[in-house]
Write a structure and sequence with these properties.
The chain is of the alpha/beta class. 26% of the residues lie in helices and 27% in strands. Strand 5 and strand 6 form a beta hairpin.
Length: 368
């Protein structure tokens, strides 16, 4: 680039008829910039360190990183192109393509910057896509802001979309999957009526209020019930509804002691669905985990039971290919780390955002 006003020419090789060998934007206003590879020869800056960390995160999620001058969209799968020009808006740090179609954008910032302050910038990039770029949804629905140490994500397909922290970039196939079906948050707003026949009034109120809370976009919920109030049976009912009607793929049922997990598994094995009177385990996978590794054969419509003791140190539970893993925590008020509160025990529920969550954070959150 020779100045602030320059003719930006990008070579993009592809197989689709809409792509040309050479594409010219015409007269656009772009800030002066240097090639990414050239900058790597200069003294490293906080911005460079952030980009290097983001590169590693994207590659770990299955994205191929390309410089814009070497962009090749003929490759199948996910491609992240660095510094993609957006006429009138500057350059997107990364533009995300899957099978030659643009789906999302990543704005990179140095570590320590407040990412919520740059969401408007990412939103502008999502609407500033050049006309020749093939995109199934405009504006681009998937928007990230990242420092490499912290990443925020907005799914523009959700009703009342809002950004949230995630622990990993989503896989390309996950983003494609979201394009082809209704988002869980949207389905939660159209849930069928609850079958109340075998439920106590407190259980009915708990399930109904939980569904309202999740549909509203609340990231966490707490159900507190008296000892003997049927907490696990309540969980059986709302987990069944979330999987069947809301489209949740995985549920993590986290307890603070292994024997509570065994007890919960037995109750799910004996639970019969209120509409079909079929065993829960006949319809969906149920697995009591012995480590932080998920069974690759049980990747859809599953409920996993685990003790927080399984997730210690720096180990992680892989969730980056899930569209909505729901985390359920059952706490025992008699456990040494939790004081008794009027003889009541609690169930915590919350989204896990489809990311890799550090195991230590799961352990700490289960301790309240």
């Amino acid at each position: 680039m020779q100045g602030a006003s320059a003719r930006a020419i990008v070579r993009i090789r592809g197989t689709g008829r809409r792509w040309l060998n050479w594409l010219e934007f015409g007269e656009v206003t772009l800030p002066e910039t240097q090639d990414y590879n050239a900058r790597k020869q200069m003294p490293i800056t906080p911005e460079d360190r952030a980009r290097q960390a983001i590169d590693r995160l994207l590659e770990a999620a299955g994205w191929k990183i390309q410089d814009r001058k070497d962009a090749d969209l003929s490759k199948a799968g996910g491609v992240a192109i660095r510094e993609f020009p957006m006429p009138g808006y500057g350059e997107a740090d990364y533009l995300l393509f899957v099978d030659g179609k643009a789906l999302g954008v990543v704005e990179a910032k140095r570590e320590g910057e407040t990412l919520t302050h740059v969401e408007r910038q990412t939103e502008k990039y999502s609407v500033g896509l050049p006309e020749f770029v093939d995109a199934p949804v405009k504006p681009l629905p998937f928007r990230y802001e990242s420092t490499g140490a912290e990443t925020r994500f907005t799914n523009g397909l959700e009703p009342d979309a809002a950004s949230r922290n995630v622990f990993a970039f989503h896989k390309p196939e996950t983003l494609v999957g979201w394009l082809n079906k209704e988002i869980v948050k949207g389905r939660l707003r159209h849930m069928p009526q609850l079958a109340e026949a075998n439920l106590w009034p407190a259980q009915i109120k708990a399930i109904q209020n939980l569904e309202v809370s999740l549909a509203r976009g609340d990231r966490r919920a707490l159900i507190q019930m008296a000892t003997g109030g049927g907490k696990t049976f309540t969980a059986c009912n709302f987990i069944y509804r979330l999987i069947k009607y809301a489209g949740a793929r995985r549920v993590l049922f986290l307890v603070d002691r292994t024997n509570l997990g065994t007890q919960a598994v037995r109750e799910f094995q004996s639970f019969k669905t209120p509409d079909e009177q079929r065993p829960f385990t006949e319809l969906y996978n149920v697995q009591q985990m012995q480590s932080n590794k998920l069974d690759p054969e049980r990747t859809s419509r599953s409920c996993f039971f685990a003790s927080s003791a399984e997730f210690v140190g720096d180990r992680r539970i892989a969730q980056s290919d899930c569209d909505l893993p729901l985390k359920i925590e059952r706490s025992n008020s008699s456990a040494p780390h939790r004081p008794r509160r009027n003889g009541r025990k609690a169930i915590r529920a919350g989204y896990s955002d489809g990311e890799e969550r550090p195991a230590e954070s799961l352990r700490q959150s289960s301790q309240g």
